[in-house]
From TrEMBL:
Lineage summary: Eukaryota, Fungi, Dikarya, Ascomycota, Pezizomycotina
Keywords tagged on the record: Cyclin
Organism: Rhynchosporium secalis
One Pfam family it belongs to: Cyclin_C_2
GO molecular function term, any single one: cyclin-dependent protein serine/threonine kinase regulator activity
Coiled-coil residue spans: none
UniProt name for this protein: RNA polymerase II holoenzyme cyclin-like subunit
Residues annotated as domain Cyclin-like: 87-169
Length: 369
């Protein structure tokens, strides 16, 4: 089985790969459904508040309900906020000193979750903590829950766990994320071997030895560092993971770092008869590189963007679903409801057992003293 065939069996390819058009359509549908549900939930909350007696009115005061027409977020506004909170997740990961793979996986969990869920339903400040903690599990980086919550500050363990099941549902219980980091290390090792002449270029390849880039060893080293920076930030904050394979993303980051080096490298891997395939591969990599260039590594939002994000954050507080605000309380109520249901089941089984014993031909079971 080739690497391509193996990748096509992964959940990342089967469930989380989209064309730009299909991804936008899915996000638009999610946004519209969430907006309708928010307006309906606000209407119910207003009716409940107006119908409540003075004694019960205090119960509804804790639930903020916007007045007037609810101005919901658009798809584009949600995407801007998701990108901002993905940056916050990376910064939180830096604060907690977790590996790059953990931060990258957490960001992808958030981006995947908000394809079929809206920020108006579940606030990202609740989800990002859970996503980062969950990523420590899936990436085998042990982090005790209480220590994790204490390190964040102002967070309890139940705050982290409250949205864990919601997150796993949103991820469709698929937790594998294929990153391009390991592919980059492999490509760099091969380029270094080519630069030292340890391995030869294919005799039938397009790349002739005379076309070898000058100062190749230094160029490989410089390209490695720059490409890794793009993978650690730009690849995570764009939709590259939804549209391209890890190897394509890796090649795109190298293309940005040193386009001539990458073009020579690709030519060295293909025969002269594969001209059409080579053009197709280069076109795909360049397209991915253009996407990565939209977010520069380690860049921060400009003052204008910060002002816009601040306005969107305020708008979000006014268009949240009032029935989904307190995830901890919802989780507690669900747990208590499950326990009550379990008690009912136990009592029912006990009554059925007593009834069956009473109807037994030989009478009920004799209890030993």
């Amino acid at each position: 089985m080739s690497e391509d065939e193996r990748y096509r069996t992964s959940t990342q390819y089967r469930l989380w790969s989209y064309t730009p058009q299909s991804l936008f359509a899915l996000r638009s549908s999610t946004n519209q459904i969430a907006a309708d549900r928010v307006r309906e939930a606000v209407r119910r909350a207003r009716e409940a508040r107006s119908n409540a007696s003075s004694a019960d009115a205090s119960d509804f005061e804790s639930v903020p309900v916007s007045e007037g027409e609810v101005d919901c977020l658009t798809v584009e506004e949600e995407l801007k906020l998701v990108a901002f909170y993905c940056r916050q997740t990376i910064q939180l990961g830096d604060h907690l000193k977790v590996p790059t793979d953990v931060k990258a996986t957490a960001v992808q969990y958030i981006k995947r979750f908000y394809i079929t869920n809206s920020l108006m339903t579940y606030h990202p400040t609740d989800i990002l903590k859970t996503a980062l903690f969950f990523a420590t599990k899936t990436e085998n980086h042990y982090f005790r829950l209480t220590k994790f919550a204490d390190a964040i500050g102002g967070t309890k363990a139940e705050d982290v766990l409250a949205s864990e099941f919601l997150l796993t549902q949103g991820l469709r219980f698929t937790f594998d994320v294929r990153h391009p980091f390991r592919a980059l290390e492999g490509a760099v090792m091969e380029l270094q071997a080519l630069s030292h002449g340890i391995i030869p270029v294919l005799p039938s390849a397009n790349a002739a030895s005379g076309d070898r880039p000058a100062n190749m060893e230094r160029r490989v080293r410089d390209a490695h560092g720059k490409a890794r920076e793009y993978l650690k930030t730009s690849a995570l904050l764009t939709d590259a993971y939804f549209h391209y394979t890890p190897s394509q993303i890796m090649m795109a980051s190298l293309m940005i770092a040193d386009s001539r080096l990458v073009e020579w490298y690709i030519k060295s891997k293909m025969t002269t008869s594969a001209g059409e395939m080579q053009s197709k591969v280069l076109s795909t990599i360049k397209s991915c590189a253009e996407m990565l260039r939209t977010v520069e590594p380690n860049s921060e939002p400009s003052p204008t963007e910060r002002k816009e994000l601040k306005g969107l954050a305020k708008k979000l507080t006014k268009c949240r679903n009032p029935e989904k605000m307190d995830l901890v309380a919802l989780q507690r109520a669900k747990r208590e409801g499950d326990e009550a249901d379990e008690d009912k089941i136990i009592k029912k089984r006990k009554l059925e057992k007593e009834k069956s014993s009473a109807d037994d031909l030989f009478g009920p079971e004799i209890k030993r003293p």
